[in-house]
Amino acid sequence: MNARVPPIALEPALALDRVSQAWDSDIVRQLTDYIAIPAKSPMFAPDWAAQGLLDTVLRNAATWVDAQKVAGLKLEIVRLEGRTPVLFFEVEGTQPGANAPGAPTVLMYGHLDKQPEFEGWRSDLGPWTPKYEDGKLYGRGGADDGYAVYASVAAVQALKSQNVPHPRIVGLIETAEESGSRDLLPYIDALRPRLGEVELVICLDSGAGNYDQLWLTTSLRGMASGTLKVEILTEGIHSGDASGLVPSSFRIMRQVLDRLEDSKTGRLLPQSFHCQVPADRLAQAQATAAILGEEVYRRFPWAHYDCGGSTTFALPTTTDPVQALLKRTWEPTLSVTGAEGFPTLQNAGNVLRPYTAFKLSLRLPPLVDAAQAVQELKALLEDNAPYQAKVTFESLSGATGWNAPATTPWFERALNEASQAHFGAPCGYIGQGGTIPLMNMLSEGFPTAQMMVCGVLGPKSNAHGPNEFLHVPYAKRLTASVAHVMAAMAQAQAAPQGAAPAAAP
């Protein structure tokens, strides 16, 4: 008979109390100050270095981390020439052998750069005017992903407060994630000797299916973005004089996009942009659909209008919860996220415009290579242009998606214990339609590592859009859950060979 090891030493109630105090007394205030700073990602602020705002939020975070006086923690702001800076910290492990060469390490990740303002904020809200209301902290970037560094350190402090053994921990906080993490790989290469043997990645930049349980992200879509431009004239001309003879750049744009997407169904036409859904991800989607039901699609802010005394809502592409989950996680999609070449409605005269430009955002299934997709996309859009118009596609960013490795027994057990302890429900598993470029990089670099990809972006939290909010009660429980999983990792490593850790009481 295999010996059994003691249950996890971390007391869940005390851990949650500790992190709740940290959030209420300090972290909410820190994030309030953070939201007020428009530290937009370099893609949206090419003069980011001159602005100094990314440096400001990074320095503020570093100052706060240093002020926590975490035992065994060292930090620095690392700068590579011409690249956005990162915050890197190391925490000595407290379990036997934790700091020996080759010992398992926990990597905690987050980012501090933000998406731009966008329109449509509630009249009493704004992207840079934080407001705390009914447990929700509104403003750009708090949930995506400013809270991550603060929650990560608070989780470590929860372990320290109970003297619970933990592995060596490193933290990497970047400032270009919303630009496709374009600067991250050089930093990973430069810091690789200090990263150690990463056996657990904790990434707090993802979402949640609801606010009632812990959610583990099991897949992420990739992304390819760029600017598609159609030019037919060198300057605008009288529409009455030229229309019918000079083809509209907008019509040519429609023809070009028809090569890529079936506008009736939204299906992307290149077969190479699709992949088969693995059987385990299909099974997870079915289980998650049973939990969330219609909330899978009802969570979005659908437009509506009154017709004949009844309210009519816009419809999703499917009302089947399983298909809804798969469509937003395992199917490629096209979104037009910006346009140029159009005057405002007020200033739109009778002029045939010389060009039309769209910013395209393609989300790619987790198993599709983004670099190859970008090459195929460019050829598809540019070759054999209608009317020999000048059609160009300029790639802006690309990142391959990610499919999580199989969970080990200790990790799956720890996730469920944490979820039961802090939410009273088992851990849920869900794919996300967004992209976190780091995850694919880390999976390639550390193929045996377990991936705790979680986050606070639950229903209506609306990252990137108006009225983005951080659900503070959920963030507290997530922070405590992170502490639980790190304690469980130490326990699993300390267990005798072949022993099964006992369940926490």
Walk me through what this model shows.
The chain has 505 residues and is α+β, with helices and mostly antiparallel strands. The chain folds into 2 domains: 302 residues, 3-Layer(aba) Sandwich (Aminopeptidase); 124 residues, Alpha-Beta Plaits, CATH 3.30.70.360. 34% of the residues lie in helices and 22% in strands. It contains 14 helices and 20 strands. It has a 6-stranded mixed beta sheet, with helices on both faces. Helix 4 crosses helix 14. It is globular, with a radius of gyration of 24 Å.
Q: What would the keywords be for this entry?
A:
alpha+beta; 6-stranded mixed sheet; about 500 residues; Alpha-Beta Plaits; single chain; about 35% helix; 4-stranded antiparallel sheet; about 20% strand; disordered N terminus; disordered C terminus; Aminopeptidase
CATH first level of the largest domain = Alpha Beta
Number of strands: 20
Please state the second-level CATH architecture of the largest domain.
Answer: 3-Layer(aba) Sandwich
Number of helices: 14
